[in-house]
Amino acid sequence: MDNKRLQINKSNPFYWLLFIVPLVDLGMFAIAWLSIGQSATTQLATGSSNAAPAEQAYHRLQETAGSIGGNWLRTLNPSVKAVQGDLVWNSKEQFGVMRLLNLPNPGNGYHYQVLVFDSYAESGQGTPLASLAMGSGRGSLYVPLRTTKKIIEPYKFVLTRSPVGERAEAQILLMVQP
Q: What phi and psi, each to the nearest 5 degrees, are found at residue 60?
């Protein structure tokens, strides 16, 4: 056996592949890691373990007889001037889903809350359906809407912004009247 050193020819195009392939792999890993992080953010915002079921439920409810809903109507608050979306609710299932686009983050110490107002409610107060600690960003955010109270005849849904843990007056930002 001969103890010769392996000679590497740097002018050979395959030599550079030794550096390029690992860099491409590292880039693909970074992209995959960031997309997993974005998916986790969406899951936290929707309050579900997977954002896709909320979107599927949204489309299913749109096709279900007896479902009601409408587009979000914006108030004159400049923070929601670019917000779009809609909501669908089925009283028989006591379940709904809202879709939001361009909803900004509520800010430190604040959260969004979705309330439903029922014609048959004795108090006249809104019943909470969902709470959000973050906005939708530029993508669509599907949020499941549930309550433990029976909603018989909803006449209004509102999205409010209020301080977390305080009994301050909530600021109404969006509304749907089915």
A: -65, -45
